[in-house]
Each structure stands twice: as C-alpha cells, then as structure tokens.
Design brief:
The protein is of the alpha+beta class and about 500 residues long. Helices cover about 25% and strands about 20% of the residues.
Length: about 500
C-alpha cells in the first residue's frame, strides 16, 4: 500500500460540520433579514456543518462545500437517476475509445471572462496536475484541449466509459484563469461560474456570497447568502428554531422532534455509516479478529435507536437510495472464521461534526467490549482526525461516507476506498482479489453490467470484514417556513440554487 495518503474529506463528509462561529453578513447589507441592497430577493442565512478544511481548494473536501453553496459547477451534473446531465456542457459524444467531445453552452465566469474551450481545457489541466489529485481522477490520466469554436476534446490514456459522470464531480469544477496563481493554491473566490459568488471568507467561521447576475441559468431569486459554519448540531437546530437561520443542514436526529414538522425535510441519501477496520496493521490485520469484531456488532440498533428511524440497517457499501443495488447484491465472499479476542486493545476513532457518530462509536465500543476487546475511543473534529486516519494510525474508524459523491459512478468509491492504491483507503485494505474485481468493473461501459460488476466487487470487500456497514443514513435539513426551493439532493452536492428564496 502507498505510504503517502492524500487528505480528503469529507467526501465522506463535507458536505455537511468546527467550532461554532459568529454570524457575518455580507453583500453590503448589515441586516440579517434585509434585502441584498437592490430591492429584491432577501439574502439567505445558511448554516453548514463542515468548515473550509483546505483553504477552499476545489480538489478536496471543500469542493462539495462550494457546490452546495452554488459557487462552482462542472461540465456535467448528476440527475435524479444518477446519470450525467448537462451543466456547462450542453451535450457530448464519444469519438473512439478514448476521446470525448463536449459542446459548451454560452456562459460567463464571475470575473467577467467567457467560458471558452481554452479556459475549460486549462482548468481541467490544472486539476490533472494537482497534488494530490482529485478523487474523481483516481487511476485516470486525461488531457483536455480546445477542439473548435465551442468544443472541448478530452482524451484519456485508457478507455473511460464513465467520463461524463466523472466530470460531474465537484472537484472538477471549471474555474477561470485568475483562480490559478503562481503558488499551488487555487482561489475560487470570484473565479467560478455558479449562481452565487463568494465575496468574503472569514476563516472557518463564516462566508458571504452575492448573487452572480450573469449566471447562464438565470438570476438567482435570492440576492446572496450569509453562510455560517457551525459544528454543533444542537446549535444549528436552535438557531433555526429562533429565526436566526433560514436553512440548517444536517440537523441531528436528537433535535428533529424539537423542530416543527413543517421545517423538517428528511432525504434518503447515498451515505453509509460504516465501521472501518485497519486491515494492514494492529490487531485487525488478523482477518479472524476482523470477523470477530463484525460478529460482535448488532447493526439493527443503529437505525432504530441511534438514528431514531432516520436510517436503514446496514446492508452493504450501497444503501436503499441506490435503488438498483439490493436486487443485485450477492453474499460476501472469502470471509475468515472468527477468532476469540484475547483482550486486544483497539484504538477506535470518529468525529463529532456529524453528531450521531460519537453515539454510534459508543455503541460499537460497548458491543466490542462485550465480545472481549478492550477499546479506547477518540472523538475529535474531522479536520483533526483525517490525516491520522488516512495514515492508518487507528485500528477502527466510524465513518459516514457518501458512496456516490466523487463521481456518481458506483465503482469509483470501491477503487478509492478499498484498493491497494486507493486515495481514501482508511481501512488500509490491500487484497489482490478485491483489486482485480474492481479493475474488472472499471472496464465495463454498459450500465447494468457495470452495476453487476460493482456488486461482485462489493461482495469481496464485505467478505474481507475490513468494512462493516452499520446504517444507511437519511439527512434531515431544517428549512424555515418562509423558505422555498431548497435543493434536497441525495448526492449531497447541492443545497441552494437559483430558485431558493425567502
């Protein structure tokens, strides 16, 4: 396995919580409830759970934060069925095995420049050169060039049957030339194409956005957004209840009942909460002890008790929101016989940005201890755990992971999370059978056959006992009565759009 692992979020998570920060309004309006200064479209007050973790780099965790706030977009997007849909590209076609042509719509960058084939090609080239590479480009080598008046030609080193899906990733957002300075840092402020433009970022506390009036999809109905980053889920719910917020993402299930029924929106998502067991070092390097840990867990209690019905019992890497998965799921392959724990001490970790996770970890701890393990639990804010988790410094990790976040391709999460060279392999799994099954799936273009191959690979991954699915999560979004048009996205890539208003 690679010794160097790239930090990435919240792909597990960003998506939606640091220290609770103070509110900062922007857009030239000092009032939290006033207009944007132009007489129409009140500003939206939004609380996000995760703060910027990587200086708003589009290549890691913060990419989804940017897309959820309507700042960035790519050539394509995901539709409700998980298929590639037009965004900055109006259409596309495949030209041979390795080349695709994307036809651009007329669009403008927030700094006033035109979205040209050359600008798009340059932006994608920067993404391919990034260190570490965006998760959406894991295992993929591509080159982009202007191919005509409104055409971008993208060529991959190997055939890539899901390239349009891959380009929907928030980490492959298209930015103008001004975003790329002499340093390695990429600055999306004022250089993106979405309906809202970042105007002020106050560290990990808050951000202000103004409406981008020249957005190709039409002017947003809200004049801007005042965003706060509040890790404490109770604080988010309280701020919504007292009228300080219009939208609060990731309301804890424990707080759901405190909100009026009309302000609670629960959405099935492609997020699975799992227990990841370090398969390369420590006690769980032994497959028999991994099997013992898996056997010790009663996963039915997580959906029923911890998530209070806002979830479904863990069935696999993919949950009920991935509607095709259940009918294609096969039994786990290659499971080892369980060994009796001999008092092994387990370092278990999770993060508190998602408020249910510490409780999940406590239940896991109790169940493992009942089976004979000794468990030490660590709970921190995610950004203070990620590097250690990716470096394999914990024996076990409770993770909430959106399985279709990075590309929308079901095979991509398997490659990134469970193969020897996977960039987000917290389980430290390196199994030749798994790698072979994932590689086979990556070569298949037909959608149904690719899904079959993904489930065959899932059977091997689950059979390794390096991952124990606990619960498939529903996300609760708090929305004030006066607000309309919130985007309840099962992929957790979007939250506000042109039609979001109050």
């Amino acid at each position: 396995m690679r010794s160097h692992r790239r930090p990435r979020l919240l792909a597990p998570f960003l998506l939606v919580p640091l220290m609770a920060g103070c509110f900062a309004s922007g857009g030239g309006d000092d009032s939290a409830s006033g207009d944007g200064g132009d007489g129409d479209g009140a500003r939206l007050r939004v609380a996000l759970a995760f703060p910027p973790a990587e200086n708003l780099s589009p290549y890691g965790a913060d990419a989804t934060l940017l897309s959820r706030l309507g700042v960035t977009e790519g050539l394509t997007s995901l539709d409700a069925n998980g298929s590639a849909a037009p965004a900055l590209a109006e259409s596309w076609r495949r030209d041979g095995d390795r080349t695709w042509e994307f036809s651009l719509r007329d669009a403008t960058f927030q700094d006033g420049g035109e979205v040209t084939p050359a600008a798009v090609a340059a932006s994608l080239t920067h993404a391919t050169d990034a260190e570490p590479a965006p998760a959406a480009l894991a295992g993929v080598t591509l080159s982009a060039e202007a191919g005509g008046d409104r055409i971008v030609r993208i060529t991959t080193a190997e055939p890539d049957p899901v390239l349009p899906l891959r380009l929907s990733s928030p980490s492959l957002a298209i930015l103008s030339k001004g975003a790329y300075g002499k340093s390695d840092r990429v600055d999306p402020v004022g250089h993106a194409t979405g309906p809202f433009e970042l105007t002020e970022v106050n560290g990990a506390t808050s951000a202000a956005l103004d409406r981008f009036d020249d957005y190709w999809g039409g002017r947003a109905q809200a004049s801007g957004i005042d965003a706060r980053f509040i890790a404490d889920g109770t604080a988010r719910a309280n701020a919504l209840r007292t009228g300080e917020l219009d939208i609060a993402e990731a309301v804890p299930v424990a707080q759901a009942a405190s909100l009026d029924e009309k302000t609670r929106r629960d959405t099935a998502t492609t997020r699975t909460t799992s227990l990841l067991l370090n398969a390369s070092s420590g006690p769980f390097k032994d497959a028999g002890l991994r099997a013992a840990a898996r056997g010790a867990l009663d996963t039915s209690v997580f959906a029923k008790d911890v998530y209070e019905g806002y979830g479904d019992p863990g069935a696999g890497v993919y949950g009920p929101a991935v509607t095709w998965a259940e009918g294609k799921r096969t039994p786990p392959l290659g499971r080892a016989a369980a060994k009796k724990p001999g008092g092994d001490t387990i370092d278990l970790a999770t993060y508190d940005n998602r408020p249910e996770l510490p409780e999940v970890a406590q239940v896991v701890k109790q169940q493992l201890e009942k089976a004979g393990f000794t468990v030490k639990l660590t709970v921190r804010e995610y950004s203070r755990l990620e590097a250690d988790a990716l470096d394999g410094k914990f024996d076990a990790f409770v993770l909430a992971r959106n399985t279709l976040l990075d590309t929308g391709d079901p095979v991509a999460v398997l490659s990134g999370d469970y193969t020897c060279d996977g960039g987000f392999n917290i389980a430290q799994l390196c199994d030749k059978g798994v790698d072979r099954a994932v590689a086979d799936a990556e070569q298949i273009a037909d959608t149904a056959k690719r899904q079959d191959a993904a489930m065959a690979a899932e059977a091997r991954i689950i059979g390794s006992d390096a991952v124990v699915p606990l619960v498939h999560q529903r996300i609760i979004t708090g929305v004030a009565d006066s607000v309309q048009g919130v985007v309840l996205d099962p992929y957790e890539r979007a939250l506000v759009g042109t039609g979001t208003r109050r």
